[in-house]
From TrEMBL:
A Pfam cross-reference name: Pribosyltran
Keyword annotations: Glycosyltransferase, Transferase
SUPFAM superfamilies: PRTase-like
UniProt cross-references to InterPro entries, sorted A to Z: PRTase-like, PRTase_dom
Identification of the protein by name: Phosphoribosyltransferase
Gene3D superfamilies registered for this protein in UniProt: 3.40.50.2020, PRTase-like
One Gene Ontology term of the molecular function aspect: glycosyltransferase activity
CDD domains listed in its UniProt record: PRTases_typeI
Residue ranges of every copy of the Phosphoribosyltransferase domain listed in the record: 7-192
């Protein structure tokens, strides 16, 4: 369905073109969504940053999100999965591990500045796809606390039932495809190579340099 994340980002940017020129804050869920969000931010003339959340995967099945945690330590539990009382101790312990990862990434990704201000702005949260939606819901919950003017969830692909779960947390949900058969996000990309921390740091630094350079108001790409 998508050649790679960059193509998905271009197609997502076109679906979000109504926000072009309105200086949206485009926030990527690291790490995979960062290159895609950069494409979106450039196309819309917005600012790029990350929203740090982490999935709490199931024992022996780490890709299945039982829950997710945000930078403040707030935990979302996936209905029917993370609300099992027998998993409560596991989720608490794993949440501490993932929160440490979040703190480490904040220090690595944006060491010289705090997260960009979201209050009163159009905020677009980008991920490369949703499965359970736990990390996206956690990100949207965290951002709602920062009182954006409009909060948008933007993804290339997700199951319809996941989008239904997401909608109460966002003012708008933009999704390019909702396939009936869905096993994993990666199945919808010809190239779904892992994005490393070095690429995330380089992308964020390049975006910040462009934003602070003279004539940065012409960031929009044709």
């Amino acid at each position: 369905m998508f050649r790679d994340r960059l193509e998905a980002g271009r197609r997502l940017a076109e679906a979000l073109i109504a926000y072009q020129g309105r200086q949206p804050l485009v926030l990527a869920v690291p790490r995979g969504a960062v290159p895609m969000a950069k494409v979106v931010a450039d196309r819309l003339g917005g600012d790029l940053d990350v929203v740090l959340v982490r999935k709490i995967g199931a024992p022996f099945q780490p890709e299945l999100a039982l829950a997710a945690i945000d930078e403040s330590g707030w935990i979302y539990r996936t209905p029917g999965l993370g609300d099992d009382p027998e998993l409560a101790d596991y989720i608490t312990a794993e949440a501490a591990v993932q929160l440490a990862v979040i703190h480490r990434r904040r220090a690595q990704y944006t060491p010289q500045r705090p997260p960009r201000e979201a209050g009163g702005r159009i905020v677009i949260v980008v991920d490369d796809g949703l499965a359970t939606g736990a990390t996206m819901i956690t990100a949207l919950h965290a951002l709602r606390e920062r009182q954006p003017a409009r909060l948008v969830c933007a993804v290339p692909v997700a199951p319809a039932e996941t989008l239904a779960r997401i909608r109460p947390y966002a003012d708008e949900v933009v999704c390019l495809a909702t396939p009936a058969w869905f096993e994993a996000v990666g199945q919808f990309y010809a190239d779904f190579a892992q994005v490393g921390d070095d690429e995330v740091v380089a992308t964020l630094h390049a975006a910040e340099a462009a934003a602070t350079a003279p004539h940065s108001e012409t960031k929009e790409t044709p």
